[in-house]
Amino acid sequence: MPAALSLQGLSKRYGTLTAVDRFSLEVEQGTVFGLLGPNGAGKTTLIKMLTTLMRPTEGDAFIQGHSIVSAGKKVRELIGVVPQENNLDRYLTARENLVLHAKMHGIPPRDYRPRIDELLELTGLSGRRNDFPDTFSGGMQRRLVVARALVHQPRLLFLDEPTTGLDPQSRRALWDHVRTLRSRMTIFLTTHYMDEADSLCDRIVIMDHGKSLVDGSAAELKARYAHAHIYELEVRRDAQRYEELFSSLSAVTSLEREQNAFRIVLRDEESLKPLMDSMESGDIRRICLVEPSLEEVFLDLTGKAVRE
Ligand SMILES: Nc1ncnc2c1ncn2[C@@H]1O[C@H](COP(=O)(O)OP(=O)(O)O)[C@@H](O)[C@H]1O
Ligand SMILES: [Mg+2]
User: Fold this and answer.
1) Cβ–ligand 1 contact at 37 (below 6 Å)
2) Which numbered atom of ligand 1 lies nearest the CA of 207?
3) Which domains does the chain have, with CATH numbers?
């Protein structure tokens, strides 16, 4: 079985700006893949090329073995697209938006009718099927765009920043919906929300300036790239004395204390031993490693916070 998606040296230049820089990647069938990056990283440009809305300057990509450059029509049958900006037809009702999409894909009414009913049900829009999208909340519009992308039963679903601008409750609702799809198709989403990538994606690539910086599961990225060794340590007694002692150790790079509890950043993993050796073992009530967040990995790699 060919990869769901294979990118081979894909590039896009806008004049002198290289928005996507020789990007290569393989995504296996059934993956929820997350492309994470700050604004301007090149995520939308990449998705536009993969969904045949824009031609690459260089390179090619293959959706289940079909070239985005030379087999655009076949590629468009295989993919569903949720673009960054909602592009619903405001002069059509919710249901009519879905029907138009079905017709454009040449699906006969006897097939699309039950399918559209089901999708409206699944996205919680059945009661609003005959209303115009302009009367919908942001979350409802987004769910309608997702429903539309699923009408022709794609094998690969692209979601470009699916939850940007949504309130927390609508974001969760959309995440839940994406989770129900994961068994049936490959999902490729972009986001600048760490928690979104962390909770939805099997695999994450962080990109900036058109290039891939790292690739792995959320857990792998945290383990590999956030090199802060942060511990929480609680002592039974002598907190004042231990504070002085810890701050004199070269292994300790930062120290905070609240009564008997310390938050200690160590220089490296080996620094744990000298710290432990400096203590009476009976004085330790609790010690645990604090897991770094994906946010810290991101900061570490791109040198910037994720912009909203
Ligand atoms: N049509 C365009 N013409 C010129 N520059 C563009 C165009 N679209 C995007 N860019 C630039 O390309 C870079 C990548 O943009 P984009 O792909 O939208 O990033 P992202 O989706 O990660 O925010 C940015 O510097 C952006 O300003
Ligand atoms: Mg974008």
Assistant:
1) yes
2) 22
3) 5-224 (3.40.50.300), 227-291 (3.30.70.100)
